[in-house]
Design brief:
alpha+beta, 2 helices, eight-stranded mixed beta sheet
Length: 158
């Protein structure tokens, strides 16, 4: 019985060793493993941004932190590559009965009444910028702010 327990333990340990270890170890051993770019903590505290138009622009990896709602019956979606980078444009379709375009960046909720634009630059690191124009309301840990425009900048790692 003791021999079976030892054999079982050896098999389990061998299987675990074969799994390859940590992600950092795998990345060091295999340079083709996609390493997520460093990010900012700026948008990890809950917040709500409401405006007519919202534009989010950031470095490579932005898509892992920011998204927009797609509903073909109410939202016109366009994806393009430009000299600025990968551009996603969400526009509310007039007369569709839709009231807003929902989006997210980490723990921030975004509500745009006309348009939401997400631009992912091809560079690693740099600034993440969230801009809002037209009847802006921002609610976060510091309270509520109302203004004709809003901008928040945060530095993403390199």
């Amino acid at each position: 019985m003791r021999r079976i327990a030892s054999l079982s333990t050896a098999l389990v340990l061998g299987a675990l060793a074969a799994c390859g270890g940590t992600r950092a170890h795998q990345q060091a051993a295999d340079p083709t493993v996609d390493v997520p770019p460093p990010w900012t903590e700026e948008f990890t505290t809950a917040g709500t941004l409401i405006a007519n138009t919202i534009v989010v622009e950031g470095p490579a990896g932005l898509r892992g932190h920011c998204a927009g709602q797609q509903d073909e019956s109410k939202i016109d979606y366009e994806l393009s590559t430009t000299d600025r980078g990968l551009v996603q444009t969400f526009t509310l379709v007039a007369g569709s009965g839709g009231t807003e375009i929902r989006g997210w960046i980490d723990r921030w909720e975004l509500f745009a009444f006309e348009k939401l634009v997400i631009v992912e630059r091809p560079t690693r690191g740099g600034e993440v910028v969230v801009r809002a124009i037209g009847d802006v309301v921002f609610a976060g840990p510091g309270g509520e702010t109302r203004a004709p425009s809003f901008e928040r900048r945060a530095r993403a790692g390199r």
